[in-house]
Amino acid sequence: MESVKANGNEDSGKSIEKSHGAKSAEDTADEADAECEVNEAYEADAEDAENMTDEADAEDAKNRRKKKRRRGLKIVRNVLFCAAVTAVCVFLLAVYVFPIMKIYGSAMSPTLFDGDIVVVHKTASLKRGDVCIFSVGESSLCRRVIGIGGDEISVDGDGNLLVNGEKQKGLFSEDAVSGGTASYPLTVPQNSYFVVGDSHRTSVDSRSSVVGCVDSSQMIGKAFLKLLPLPEFIDGTE
Hints:
- By secondary structure, the chain is an alpha+beta fold.
- The chain folds into two domains: 1-97; 100-233, Umud Fragment, subunit A (Ribbon).
- Helix content is 40%, strand content 23%.
- The protein contains one helix and twelve strands, in the order αββββββββββββ.
- The strands form two sheets. Strands 1, 2, 3, 4, 9, 10, 11 and 12 form an eight-stranded antiparallel β-sheet that branches. A four-stranded antiparallel β-sheet has the order 7-6-5-8, with no helix packed on it.
- The longest helix is centred in the first third of the chain and has 96 residues, at 2-97.
């Protein structure tokens, strides 16, 4: 009987040891599974964090592109606005202050020639020697001012041009009043001008009844700058 009891106790001890071993293996497996879950969770969190960083970088890059595009559009708008304002100013100046006109014919040679482009200062206040543009009917003529309102135009015995009794020199030749239909001496009316082309022998001007003395209301302005073919200022003389 005792031997049977002893065997029973031994078997019971072995069963307990097996039970503890199984429990330890299960615990180890559970710990491994838990560690795997932690690692997976960590990796998932790291991946999520990386994805969020990538998304943030992509969003920042997108915002930078938008800002750059907005800056570019703003610059383009400013440039176009400035160009438009400049164009309007140039147009207004060209129409109302400094019109650009083309010379036709040879009446002003050798100062100006057919086809020359000049800039005109719109004014009716001119002095002797100024090159002026004025209207006659539907045409515009370019001539030089010889006399202003109140001046007496006459010719001496040698055919020299006299303004208020003084012989004109420089740009005005001795035959400046020849070849016309005007009677001398003549007095230039107030607010009017006596004009002659620099090509005195061929010019139709105040010496002819076709033009006569030019009223200030006919004046377009003073031609002061030649643009083409070569830019240069137009000389005047007293």
